[in-house]
Amino acid sequence: MRKLVFGGLAGIAFLIVAAVFSFHNLRQREQRVQRQMDLQVMSESSPAAAVTAPFSGSIPALEIADSSDAGQRARGVAFNYDYAFRLPGERIAAVQEGHAAACEALGAARCRVAGMQYAVGEGGAVSAMLAVKLDPAIARSFGKDGITAVTRADGKLVSSAIVGVDTAAAAENVDRDARRVQAEIRRLEGELARSRNVPELAQQFAAELSRQRSLLNELRADGERSANALTATPMRFTYAASAAVAKPEAKGALSAALTTAGESFIGGVGSLIIILSATAPWAALLGIGWLVWMAVQPVLARRRLSAPAIAEA
Q1: How confident is the model at residue 11 (pLDDT cuts 50, 70, 90)?
Q2: Which superkingdom, per the lineage (predicted)?
């Protein structure tokens, strides 16, 4: 009986030790994975130089070079810029206003605010948008400095798109079509003059002449849009809220101590649950065996006592 009890206790102790080591290895693997994820996030963030200046509640003016993009622009190509940012929701309004103020500071000839939107959705989620029209010579510099302003507000760039449209080819097509329509208009005007005495035929030429003139006006409008695309580059900033991450240096000693104590308590409870879940089935099995043994032990004792009496009789 003693050997059975000691063996059961030794088995339980072995299971507890094995569970503790398993939990320790599991925590180490989780920590390694978390460190790898943190390193990956840091590598995907903006360059360190862009985040060295702490956020002070206002966005510094963007410094735009006059001709930094002049050598990079392709002749006859109009670009559309689209940037998407993610940053703490309480800082979106300040960043958006800083971008708009930087545009207005350049003057209407170089930058104009074309649209501005700010909204607070369900659960307090903040989103915003800013659309501007820029001098093509400063478009890329304005976008780069806009990204820097976001990183200074503890935000990051999550997507960007720069799409070029060959407006030179489009302008050539418009010019060719316009010349063809003008020639057709001159022909119809001559036919209309010669058919004055035939009312039905004159009416047909007049209707076609009106249609061709409308088509010419549309082609001229397309040409103006192509020309404007080369002189005003559209750029859009969209802002979405992200959870603000508290910096370690901003925490007080008491707050850090309470956080560490809470994490330790939760970790201890988790360890206890894992150990109990690993050892409970075996402990229950040993307990059932002990109860069975305690139940049959009196019966076996009575049999041992009655056996000599039967033998003497």
Answers
A1: low
A2: Bacteria
